[in-house]
């Protein structure tokens, strides 16, 4: 997502404003946020992030700022300022802090799409179950109980462990 | 590699065929992928970038050959030492992004001769693969890209997690890694000033609207790119389905706007289209902004039947060929802005006055 103000840089500051009961999302890059007085630019990185995170995301996340990935050395702070992760492992290392972000950005936190062959049969089976569960939810929403029962049976079958 | 042939011809996706091609210029699906065991590019050192480029160059050219593009049809162009003009040319043709052109270090692009498939190596992610088609053909794009993706996955292991899907440098792409977009020509909605209203409803449905060259660019002329925002928690077919349900609605608004223009102000529309056509055929110097505006009016004129001596494919390719890097390639020299505007006017005169049969 790009900054709403300059339209150029990646938005790393996500703010929810409530004015007169009207909720508004503001997404800005670090520089534009600083211009608007949302971040103190002169402060050291840690303070900027702690302030930001502490104020808008929740105090417990401030502790995440110092997290460092043992594989690539990327810190959560670096991610928040650059908008890019350092390596695939970061998703695990920063998981606690990333999950609420993903929820807000993506609206979902669980992959339900394609699975590469290299991920193995268990991952493929899991993907099939997730897809069936989504169909089941839809069927129930549409009160199509016959289809729902059928889907539930298929999910049970799939949930049996993969044979030897 | 020699890019001269690119400058004078255009990719198949511009031929102006395919469903709804009076409004939908092109459909595009792209996937972001990374190789397991390597950091993302922001953290990769020179040597790791080099290794990635070598691994992916083989994997991608092999996969493209397998996916039916055939050996002779696949080009791989390393970009580390590419001339600036060549990089701009590839950007103007939508074969690479500005980010890849402006990047550093070992990187490259593989593409089919038809230019329908292009795979960027070492952009924001290790791999960015796209399939582009003329008209509204999202499912067909996905079928081709899915196959190519499988063929690459046979050669390299992707960074993938069962929970989060394909892991990408930016969390806005994680999950499917998929961005689906259509390039829409919406002069009817622009001329009748309904664009803000339509955009608002597109955004409310969770889709993004951008200008001609994607992220961070202002919408240019009357061209707009509509794409999905979510990549996680939705499947590939659901993403395609979400555009598939919204785009026809935009098309019907645009058609209604065009009909309204013809009914209520036919003379003014005809005049505007004809003036634009006249400018393109007779101007002695013309900027790229003006060209874009006039070509947009002419494209509308062709689609409304107000201009009947011009095939739509020729109009479509002029959008690409009249851009700065293309003009300089065609003329074989670096041209400053003023000289470029004169060269552009001359090129348009040749192409539009029927004295040049090269692009017929």
Give the topology string of chain A: H per helix, E per strand. Answer: EEHHHHHHHH
Radius of gyration of chain B: 21 Å
Mean pLDDT of chain B: 90
- Helical proportion of chain B, percent range: 40-55%
Number of helices of chain A: 8
Structural class by helix and strand composition of chain A: mainly alpha
| β-strand number of chain A | 2
H/E element string of chain B?
A: HEHEHHEEEHEEEHHEEHHHHH
Terminus-to-terminus distance of chain A = 46 Å
How many angstroms separate the termini of chain B?
Answer: 26 Å
- State mean pLDDT of chain A (0 to 100 scale): 78
Strand line-up of the largest beta sheet of chain B: 2-3-4-5-1-8-10-9
> How are the strands of the largest sheet of chain A arranged?
1-2
Class from secondary-structure proportions of chain B: alpha+beta
Report helical residue fraction of chain A.
40-55%
The major β-sheet of chain A equals:
2 strands, antiparallel
Give a short overview.
With 164 residues, chain A is mainly alpha-helical. Chain A has helices spanning 30-35, 45-56, 59-62, 76-82, 90-93, 95-106, 120-141, 145-159, and strands spanning 13-19, 22-28. Chain A is built from eight helices and two strands, in the order ββαααααααα.
Task: Show the helix and strand layout.
The complex is a heterodimer of chains A (164) and B (360).
Chain A: E1 13-19, E2 22-28, H1 30-35, H2 45-56, H3 59-62, H4 76-82, H5 90-93, H6 95-106, H7 120-141, H8 145-159
Helix pairs in contact in A: 7-8
Chain B: H1 4-8, E1 24-33, H2 46-69, E2 74-78, H3 84-92, H4 98-101, E3 108-112, E4 117-121, E5 127-134, H5 138-153, E6 160-161, E7 165-166, E8 178-185, H6 187-191, H7 195-204, E9 207-210, E10 223-228, H8 236-282, H9 288-303, H10 312-321, H11 324-331, H12 337-352
Antiparallel strand pairs in B: 1-5, 1-8, 2-3, 3-4, 4-5, 6-7, 8-10, 9-10
Helix pairs in contact in B: 2-5, 3-11, 8-9, 9-10, 11-12
């Amino acid at each position: 997502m790009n900054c709403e103000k300059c339209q150029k840089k990646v938005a790393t500051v996500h703010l929810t404003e409530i004015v007169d009961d009207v909720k508004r999302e503001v997404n800005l890059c670090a520089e534009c946020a600083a211009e608007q007085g949302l971040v103190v630019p002169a402060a050291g990185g840690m303070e900027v992030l702690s302030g930001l995170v502490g104020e808008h995301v929740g105090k417990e996340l401030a502790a995440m700022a110092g997290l460092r990935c043992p594989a690539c050395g990327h810190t959560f702070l670096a991610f928040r300022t650059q908008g890019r992760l350092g390596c695939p492992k970061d998703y695990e290392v920063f998981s606690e802090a990333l999950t609420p972000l993903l929820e807000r950005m993506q609206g979902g936190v669980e992959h339900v799409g394609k699975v590469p062959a290299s991920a193995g049969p268990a991952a493929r089976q899991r993907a099939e179950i997730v897809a069936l569960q989504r169909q089941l939810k839809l069927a129930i929403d549409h009160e199509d109980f016959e289809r729902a029962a059928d889907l539930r049976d298929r999910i049970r079958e799939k949930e049996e462990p993969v044979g030897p | 590699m020699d890019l001269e042939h690119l400058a004078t011809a255009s990719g198949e996706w511009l031929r102006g065929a395919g469903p709804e091609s009076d409004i939908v210029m092109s459909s595009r699906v792209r996937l972001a992928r990374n190789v397991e065991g390597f950091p993302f590019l922001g953290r990769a050192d020179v040597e790791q970038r080099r290794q990635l480029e070598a691994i992916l160059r083989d994997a991608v050219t092999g996969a493209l050959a397998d996916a039916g593009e055939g050996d002779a049809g696949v080009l791989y162009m390393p970009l580390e030492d590419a001339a600036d003009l060549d990089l701009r040319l590839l950007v103007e043709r939508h074969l690479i992004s500005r980010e890849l052109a402006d990047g550093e270090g070992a990187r490259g692009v593989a593409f089919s001769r038809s230019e329908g498939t292009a795979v960027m190596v070492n952009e924001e992610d290790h791999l960015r693969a796209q399939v582009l088609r003329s008209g509204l053909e999202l499912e067909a794009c996905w079928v081709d890209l899915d196959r190519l993706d499988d063929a690459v996955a046979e050669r390299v292991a992707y960074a993938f997690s069962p929970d989060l899907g394909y892991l990408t440098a930016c969390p806005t792409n994680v999950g499917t890694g998929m961005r689906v977009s259509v390039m829409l020509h919406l002069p009817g909605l622009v001329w009748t000033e309904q664009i803000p209203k339509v955009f608002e409803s597109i955004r409310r449905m969770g889709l993004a609207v951008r200008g001609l060259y994607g992220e961070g660019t202002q919408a240019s002329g009357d061209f707009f790119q509509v794409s999905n925002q979510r990549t996680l928690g939705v499947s590939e077919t659901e993403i395609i389905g979400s555009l598939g349900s919204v785009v026809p609605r935009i098309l019907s608004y645009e058609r209604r706007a065009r009909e309204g223009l013809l009914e209520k102000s036919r003379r003014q529309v005809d005049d505007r289209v004809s003036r634009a056509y006249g400018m393109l055929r007779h101007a002695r110097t013309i900027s790229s902004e003006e060209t874009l505006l006039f070509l947009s009016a002419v494209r509308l004129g062709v689609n409304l039947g107000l201009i009947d001596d011009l095939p739509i494919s020729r109009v479509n390719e002029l959008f690409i060929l009249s851009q700065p890097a293309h003009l300089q390639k065609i003329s074989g020299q670096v041209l400053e802005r003023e000289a470029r505007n004169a060269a552009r006017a001359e090129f348009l005169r040749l192409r539009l006055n029927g004295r040049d049969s090269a692009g017929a």
